[in-house]
Amino acid sequence: MASLTTFLIAIPALLVLSVVASKGAGRFGIPALSVFLFVGLLVGAEGPGRLAFANDQFAQTLGILALIAILHAGGLGTSLEDVRAVRGTALVLSTIGVVVATALVGAFAVVALRFDWLHGLLLGSAIASTDVAAVFTILRSRSVGLGGRIRPLLELESALNDPMTVFLGVGLLRLIAHPGASIWSLLPVFFIQMAVGTLAGIASGKVMRWAINGVSLEFEGLYPVFSVALVVLTYGLADLVGGSGFLAVYVSGIVLGNTSYVHKRSLITFHDGIAWLMQIAMFLTMGLIALPSELVGVAGAGVALAAFLVFVARPLSVLACLTPFRCSIREQLMVSWAGLRGAVPIVLATYPLIAGIDGARTIFNLVFFVVFISVLLQGTTIPIVARWLGVAAPMTPEVRYPIEFNPTVATGNQLVEMVVPDGARVADCSLVELSLPERTLVVLIQRDGEMIVPGGGTVFQPHDRLLVLAPEEALPQIRALITATSLSA
User: Fold this and answer.
1) Fewer CB near the terminus (10 Å): N or C of the chain?
2) For the chain, how big is the Rg over CA atoms in Å?
């Protein structure tokens, strides 16, 4: 048995190797997640590293914790304005779209791979979920954005379809274990899980804000510990009362992220780092579990399945769901192509292994091919496809200001960035002429790469980026004033 020292060397060494390798691969447009998967294969039982790892239960537990961290961090970075703009399309795509994709892949598995229907649908549900974190990591590395409503739609869909695919996967496993059960018996369970999960998430987000603001911890380093405990507790309690824990942690992140609370900036940064760590761990774990000798045996079927998902199942499900919402064909094709597979299929692939059902290893190996090919093929070509479809938009570089506002008490104020658009009437006006609400302070102006500390006579120009400190309730009025075409607006 390996000693503790061996693990304390091997695990951080794997993480360092993965991060460094991803940095080099990014320069050639190779997605970082595919590098993590490849590193896992290299150090696995049949790779040069010869590291035997066969603990499926541990992999599943790690996967659940990873999804909790990834979904909550995604919620913290989701704007309520974006949610409202695409909530209808995202909800349809993440529910009906997942069912359509699952059914199509299931039919393909029955006809082409000789699966029975329940096992085919189980395979379909495992690969139906998308991973938007991978998409925008690639776009940021290539300095390409997505215009219109594509970006918020992908973000919201990827978060909402995770609970849906987990529900389908677990439900289908129950049907396989109990052949006499009806698939229609899953419907009431689904609606209960989604409704309870949503309500639990809303309530938890509000409780989290109240708890973080009111606890008044003596040491700042305890706030991340407290925050993580609240997030995991949200999942556990929602699951205990019959709700979707994954949906609850995502919704709680949205509620919390769109309010002000103490140490907000540092806590968001902390959760983002944890989410990255968990995503790396999941791809490494899948690489460790996979055995190249078994993968060779299903290579043809894996490539065919990945091709069917990318070129048939995903496009048809997107077209069926988004056409009624009058989305353009270019937007639909981009949403379809950007549907990368990531952490969720890896987690779901461990469920059949633990359940010990027939063909579980084959399902895992096929999921491996789908994830690897999806990340590598689609991941490397997303910027090219976005430009070809005419939906690429310049990605606004993140501005790093020399100051941060990280309140240690609940002040009710926020430090936000606002941009002076072309044609705005505030352009060519001085700060003193704006009549900003009380307790509002324009802290800095970023102009042509320079930072300007404004005075009363400072004149605004188009494209100025303003760092504004103001009461939370005054922000809509200030934003309307900055962007209005008339000072009286």
Assistant:
1) N
2) 24
Q: How many residues does the chain have?
A: 489
Token pair belonging to 425: 């009437």
- The alpha carbon dihedral of 87, 91, 94, 97 has a sign of negative
Tokens of 482: 């900055």
How far from chain centre, in Å, is Cα 223?
A: 23
Please state whether beta strands 392-394 and 450-452 pair in parallel, antiparallel, or not at all (unpaired): unpaired
Residue 466 identity: L
Are 68 and 238 spatial neighbours (Cβ–Cβ below 8 Å)?
Answer: no
Closest CA to 371 of 293, 284, 297: 284
Neighbours of 114 (CB within 10 A): 10
pLDDT tens digits for 85-120? Answer: 888 999 999 999 999 999 999 999 999 999 999 999
Q: Which of 394, 428, 458 is the last residue of a domain?
A: 394
**Torsion angle, CA of 184/186/191/196, rounded to 10 degrees?**
160
Domain end among 394, 427, 444: 394
pLDDT given for residue 141 in this prediction: 59
Residue 336 within any structural domain of the chain: yes
How far apart, in whole angstroms, are the C-alpha atoms of residue 101 and residue 344? 15
Calpha distance 346→338 (Å, rounded): 18
Cα distances (Å, whole numbers) of residue 334 to 79, 135, 319, 423, 431: 22, 11, 11, 31, 42
Distance CA 175, CA 152 (A): 35
Task: Write out the two tokens for 251.
Answer: 């919704």
CATH number, position 198 = 1.20.1530.20
